[in-house]
Amino acid sequence: MNTKFKLQHKLFGLFTVFAIMISGLITLIFYHAAYTKVHEDIRHRLRDIVSIAAANIDLTTHAKLQKTEQEGSESYRAIKISLQKIRDASTDILYIYTMRYDINQKITLSVKMS
C-alpha cells in the first residue's frame, strides 16, 4: 500500500513538472511571436509615416538647406512649417526632423521640429 502511494506521488510530481515545462515553452513561443509581431507593426507604421511625411516636404526647398547658418532662412521656416503640420496631424509623433547625407556621406540632421 505504501509503495503504491509513493508511486502515485512520484507520477503526480513528474506530470506536474512536465506540465509546467510545456506551459513555459508555450508561453515563451507565444511571447516571441507577439514580440516579433509588435516590432514588425511598429516598423510598418514608421515606414508609412515617413513615406507620407516625405511626400509632403518640398524637396527643392529642402535641398537648399546645406548649412546650419540657414536656420532662420525662408526655406528653413517653410520646411519647419511642413513638419509642424505633419506632427500636429499625427497622434504618435512627438519629434519630427529631416536628415540628409553630408559631403562625407554621413547622415546629418537638417530640420528639426519638436
Low-pLDDT segments: none
Averaging pLDDT over every residue, what do you get? 86
Query: How large is the share of residues in beta strands?
Result: 5-15%
What's the main sheet like? 2 strands, antiparallel
Order of strands across the biggest sheet? 1-2
Helicity level:
55-70%
Number of strands: 2
Helical segment tally? 3
The arrangement of helices and strands along the chain is HHHEE
Rg, rounded, reads 28 Å
Name the shape in a single word: rod-shaped
Structural class: mainly alpha
Distance between the termini: 77 Å
Can you put this structure into words, describing what you see?
With 114 residues, the chain is mostly helical. The protein is 66% helix and 11% strand. It has 3 helices and 2 strands, in the order H-H-H-E-E. It has helices at 2-55, 59-63, 74-89, and strands at residues 96-101, 107-113. Strands 1-2 form a two-stranded antiparallel sheet. Strand 1 and strand 2 (107-113) form a beta hairpin. The termini are far apart.
Q: How does the SSE layout of this entry go?
A:
Elements: H1 2-55, H2 59-63, H3 74-89, E1 96-101, E2 107-113
Give me some keywords for this one.
114 residues, mainly alpha, two-stranded antiparallel sheet, 2 strands, 11% strand, rod-shaped
Please provide a brief summary of the model.
With 114 residues, this protein is mainly alpha-helical. The chain contains 3 helices and 2 strands. It has a two-stranded antiparallel sheet with strand order 1-2.
